[in-house]
From TrEMBL:
The keyword Lyase does not apply. Transmembrane segments: none annotated. Keywords: Phosphopantetheine, Phosphoprotein. Gene3D superfamilies: ACP-like, N-terminal domain of ligase-like, NAD(P)-binding Rossmann-like Domain. This is Acetyl-CoA synthetase-like protein. InterPro entries: ACP-like_sf, Adenylate-forming_Reductase, AMP-binding_CS, AMP-dep_synth/lig_dom, ANL_N_sf, FAR_NAD-bd, NAD(P)-bd_dom_sf, PKS_PP-bd. It comes from the Eukaryota.
Length: 1115
């Protein structure tokens, strides 16, 4: 069949009516619309371009005879068949009137608002909507405006032939008189309204020029070039995409729009998942455009998936598609593409890749959630300081936008927040809206979309919204699926529903930061009589929904707040630990229904749940705030929402609270008080060294006959990702098995870790890189037998770098991980060849070493008392002892006592959650740096990566234990000079005590903005402890953060690694690189001293040229 004659897009035809008349002349018999003859019919009816053009003349005569009267705005409030709606729009445009399609789902108040904003006094509606239009007429009359309402029935003569299915009607219609002058490009063509998701819908004007320009987008032009016919049956005509798909695209491409069968004067067909695909199939469509709910339903139907797989594209927009549904469709071979845009700024995304052929979307299928910006659009991504970016769309000659909201610019700030793809430059994923971001009262920011999206994947949930703005913790408002509604006042039904959806909530919690965790008791369920308000496109109107449930939300928080009432219990006699134990016991008993948990027992094993923990915490905070003591009031700000979860015994709570209140009592010893008993450490050492096996594989040097094969655990953190990158870059390494704990997408997690640290992600695509999901604490690591056998039969080195870092956990909490180390020793014993086992320990374990005894030696320390400050340190002590015993028995074990790692000079990549970047950001905000004079023995991460390559390639035996600290420490003065110069050299330096005093003063009145601006407020206890221990060289108080107060022997480290022998002292250049990296991440503000991209690239190249090994990881 011949192809239609495509209208020119050179600007010679730049109104919709000009495009319609071109098609009527050149493609007269080609269908504008195809549709079934009847609802259940496979026979098709077509309405040609010529017929549509003739009907538009007829409607223009009926609406504005003789083109008399003003070019006024006419509102369309209809619920009718799509072809009829299209005709009304085209008839208004031909008559020179300004069409304003409005959703009949809008409230009378919303419609009145839109009418007033456009000075509209005329409506086209229908009898079935008379109740709505009468309310509008009455309300406008109160405002002194008389509305004229025309009934759709008066226009029936224009489309009567269609509804009678007489498409051969050739009755003559006089051409409507053209305008006396050609339509000026800047004249108004039509209004569209926003969805009203955040308030009343906004009226947005499109001139003829801007309306035509909107059609010249990648998605439209790419589809036109491919000759695609679309089914967009679920999109209403008053929605922007509905207008594009049913008016703009057919006129521009001469390709028919698929529609439902005509039912006028009956109500139109209601779209649902099945009939949309039935019509798409019958109309022989090449693509489908639908809302996410449709795709979610199709993903569950094998027959639907089989049909969708035959289409060239399945595009969705208007809201997020649950990941499970999208992944399932893509896995089945469906070409899923995300569409993104807005009435205010058009569609800046690119759908089609012209270089890759007709069936190739621009974004690869696996990245269906991501979008790429069109080359025609001008966009600016504005960093928000939390890893997200707001999209700003800027107008240019080829990309016009109807609304500007950036002062002084022709640009629109969308308030939509995106995140960049971790490994693929140019891909972006929407994560929420700026006004959706929930800012808790402590300044923490929650972007709720990912959690909400996952929970919406539960079959029991229709929609959910997180809430918590200016509160201490977040909650969740859930609208159950229709078949699962409950009475929210029925406590038993409510508890049951919460329990049923809890697995989804728990998984969603795991995707988010700790402060974004949703507790079960903070879940509200909607009342069936009060469903979520929705926009025309079906999306929940967040602001309106939360407003509708404001009373219930307030009541929930009031219940939580009431829990802070002491109920007659007096404040503690003092804030010392002994008195706090008794006082906390009273409160625990009151919260726990009169049951008194033992002081050393886990509260959650004695009746506490998350709500009880919240009540308990609130009582502690209330006592601190009610004391009248400014210091105690400041302590209240440091009690995190997880306070009771992190310290789940009365004894632990009393100990931590006492130390927070009085960190200087006993100086450093008070904060670092033994929280672990020596006898417990000794008992675990005895348990896990008992009956150690003897190596069965002899002393053979395996590297003499085989290239290294490495099993690496914990490769997604700072150190682990660098180890993995350097091993993969090393030509001599044959294979690396990267074993990481289970996650939703382990491969993407690794790529994200590399991207965050500016490591080359293509290393992960090498055949030698094998990503595994498991845990050494599980039998066979949790792997399938065949996979486990493959690993164990080939591995030559095991680098065990995975360990939970939580200084609040007890030693007993680490027993499973300690048992995992013993299991690794046994695996080495039975392996078919000798296996080297390197396990990461920590210099934090040595923080109580007496400096009078000289440098910390490179062998296990004999006295377990050095590691009693917390369970983490004690666990590392136990591990070192296990490895030492194994080494004595002939195993090739090495305990890697790791110090503070820092960002490399080449990239500066240093995560912003660590204490140094927090100190720097806070110092910039406070206007001063602290003087922390002393040695700095941090090791750059690239050097750590090189060190492991040296070890893996070593033919000689490695030491039993090494201290990984910089062999040639630099001074804080050098680091500080680099930091000050890069952020602006005029920032003064003040004594550390004074700097901490500034934090103390700010903490008493800190706002949410202060906590974001000065994040050191959240680590006030840590910085207090450093200041309190100045006499003891300050940094010995750092829980595994900084070991500069001690010196360390490094002879074994340097003997075993060329990289460590050659490592030069850190210079100011390292600090410059860190600041640049933090700026790029939005952690620090931009300044005039920021180098250009070109100069930074030259800096990186020069660093690569200096290093003998780093070129393998060039960026």
């Amino acid at each position: 069949m011949a192809s239609p004659c495509l209208p020119p897009i050179d600007g010679s035809l730049c109104t919709l009516i000009a495009l319609l008349d071109f098609n009527a002349a050149h493609n007269a018999d080609w269908p504008y619309v195809v549709l079934p003859e009847h609802e259940d019919s496979q026979s098709l009816q077509a309405i040609s371009f010529a017929e549509m053009a003739r009907a538009s003349h007829h409607i223009a005569h009926l609406l504005r005879p003789g083109r008399e009267g003003p070019d006024e705005v006419v509102a369309i409030v209809l619920n009718t068949d799509m072809p009829i709606y299209i005709l009304v729009v085209l008839g208004l445009l031909r008559a020179g009137l300004v069409a304003y399609p409005m959703s009949p789902r809008n409230s009378p108040e919303a419609i009145c608002h839109m009418l007033q904003s456009t000075s509209c006094t005329r409506i086209i509606s229908q009898d079935s909507l008379s109740a709505l239009t009468e309310k509008v007429r009455a309300e406008m009359a109160l405002k002194g405006v008389e509305m004229r309402v025309a009934d759709l029935a008066s226009l029936e003569p224009a489309f009567d032939g269609f509804t009678r299915r007489d498409t051969n009607d050739t009755s003559h219609v006089e051409p409507y008189p053209p305008p006396t002058a050609p339509d000026a490009l800047q004249k108004p063509a039509l209004y569209l309204h926003s969805s009203g998701s955040t308030g009343f819908p906004k009226s947005i004007l499109s001139t003829h020029e801007r309306l035509f320009n909107r059609a010249l987008r990648n998605a439209t032009l790419g589809s036109r070039a491919r000759g695609l016919r679309y089914a967009a049956l679920g999109l209403p005509p008053f929605h922007t995409m509905g207008l594009v798909q049913h008016v703009l695209y057919p006129l521009l491409s001469a390709r028919a729009a698929a529609c439902f069968a005509l039912r006028h004067p009956a109500p139109p067909v209601v779209p649902h998942a099945r009939n949309v695909l039935d019509v798409a199939r019958a109309c022989k469509c090449d693509g489908v455009f639908a809302v996410p709910a449709m795709l979610e339903a199709w993903a569950r139907e094998p027959a639907s998936v089989a049909y969708l797989r035959t289409l060239q594209i399945v595009s969705f927009g208007g809201g997020p598609l649950p990941q499970a549904a999208g992944d399932a469709l893509v896995a089945a071979g469906v070409r899923v593409a995300a569409a993104y845009g807005g009435t205010e700024f058009s569609s800046p995304t690119a759908t089609w890749d012209e270089a890759r052929g007709a069936r190739a979307p621009l974004v690869p299928d696996a990245d269906w959630q991501w979008v790429r910006w069109s080359a025609r659009a001008s966009v600016r991504m504005v960093a928000q300081g939390d890893g997200t970016f707001e999209l700003v769309v800027c107008e240019n000659e080829g990309y016009l936008i109807p609304v500007y909201n950036v002062p002084g610019e022709k640009a629109y700030a969308t308030a939509d927040l995106f995140e960049p793809h971790p490994t693929k430059e140019g891909l972006w994923r929407i994560v929420g809206r700026r006004d959706d971001v929930i800012i808790l009262s402590n300044g923490e920011k929650i972007v709720p979309l990912q959690q909400e999206d996952y929970i919406n994947g539960s079959p029991l949930v229709r929609d959910c919204l997180m809430f918590g703005r200016e509160r201490e913790q977040a909650g969740l408002l859930v609208e159950p699926a229709p078949e699962h509604t409950i009475d929210p006042n029925d406590e038993r039904a409510l508890a049951s529903f919460r329990n049923k959806i809890w697995p989804f909530v728990e998984t969603a919690n795991g995707m988010a930061s700790t402060f974004a965790k949703i507790f079960k008791e903070m879940i509200l369920v909607t009342d069936p009589s009060k469903p979520f308000p929705r926009a025309a496109k079906g999306t929940v109107q967040r602001k309106a929904a939360l407003l509708a449930y404001a009373e219930e939300i307030d009541r929930l928080y009031e219940t939580v707040a009431d829990s802070s009432d002491a109920r007659g219990i007096l404040p503690p006699k003092s804030w010392k630990e002994a008195d706090l134990v008794d006082w906390l016991s009273e409160h625990a008993m009151a919260v726990n229904g009169g049951r008194a948990p033992p002081h050393t027992a886990n509260l959650f094993e004695h009746g506490f749940d998350s709500l009880g923990a919240t009540f308990f915490r609130n009582r502690v905070i209330a006592a601190l705030r009610g004391s009248g003591d400014t210091h105690l009031v400041s302590i209240a700000a440091q009690i995190s929402p997880n306070f009771v979860f992190e310290h789940p015994t009365i004894q632990d709570l009393a100990s931590v609270l006492g130390a927070l209140v009085d960190p200087s009592s006993g100086s450093r010893a008070r904060l670092m008080q033994p929280s672990v008993k020596v006898e417990d450490i000794v008992a675990l050492i005895a348990k896990y060294t008992a009956e150690l096996p003897t190596p069965e594989n002899g002393p053979t040097n395996v590297l003499a006959v085989q290239r290294p094969v490495v099993l690496l655990t914990g490769s997604t953190g700072n150190i682990g990702s660098h180890i993995l990158a350097y091993l993969l870059a090393e030509k001599n390494v044959a294979k690396v098995y990267a074993l990481n704990r289970p996650s939703a997408n382990p491969g993407e997690r690794l790529k994200a870790a590399f991207a965050e640290r500016l490591l080359p992600a293509d290393l992960l695509d090498k055949p030698k890189a094998v990503s595994l999901t498991g845990d050494v604490t599980l039998e066979n690591f949790g792997l399938a037998d065949e996979q486990y056998d493959e690993v164990i039969s080939s591995v030559t080195h095991i680098i065990h770098n995975a360990w939970t870092v939580n200084f609040n956990l007890s030693l007993q909490s680490y027993e499973d991980q300690i048992a995992g180390v013993r299991m690794l020793v046994e695996i080495c014993a039975s392996a078919p060849r000798p296996v080297r086992l390197l396990v990461t320990s920590s210099v934090g374990m040595t923080s109580q070493w007496d400096p009078n005894d000289g440098p910390v030696p490179e062998h296990p320390l004999p006295d377990p008392a050095v590691a009693t400050n917390n369970g983490y340190s004690a666990s590392k002590y136990v591990v070192e002892q296990i490895l030492d015993r194994a080494h004595e028995m002939g195993f090739k074990t090495t305990a890697v006592r790791m110090g503070q790692a820092c960002g490399p000079e080449a990239t500066g990549a240093w995560g912003t959650t660590e204490w140094v970047p927090i100190l720097v950001r806070s110092s910039v905000a406070l206007g001063c740096f602290p003087d922390m004079t002393g040695p700095v023995n941090w090791v750059p991460l690239d050097a750590i990566g090189e060190m492991y390559v040296d070890w893996v390639n070593a033919r000689d035996d490695l030491p039993a234990l090494v201290n990984v600290v910089h062999p040639r420490p630099t001074s804080w003065d050098v680091v500080l000079a680099g930091l000050r110069a890069e952020v602006g050299g005029n920032v003064p330096v003040i004594p550390l005590d004074d700097w901490v005093s500034k934090l103390e003063a700010l903490s008493t009145t800190a706002t949410a903005e202060d906590l974001t601006r000065v994040p050191a407020l959240k680590l006030l206890r840590f910085f207090r402890s450093i200041a309190a221990s100045r006499a003891d060289k300050m940094s010995r108080a750092a829980d595994d953060h900084d070991s500069a107060g001690l010196t360390y022997a490094t002879a074994e480290l340097q003997r075993s690694s060329v990289a460590m022998r050659r490592l030069q002292p850190m210079s100011e250049a390292h600090a410059h690189a860190w600041v640049r990296y933090w700026r790029d991440k939005g952690w620090l503000p931009q300044t005039v001293s920021t180098p250009s991209d070109a100069s930074l690239a030259e800096t990186l190249k020069s660093v690569f040229r200096r290093s003998p090994k780093i070129p393998k990881l060039q960026l």
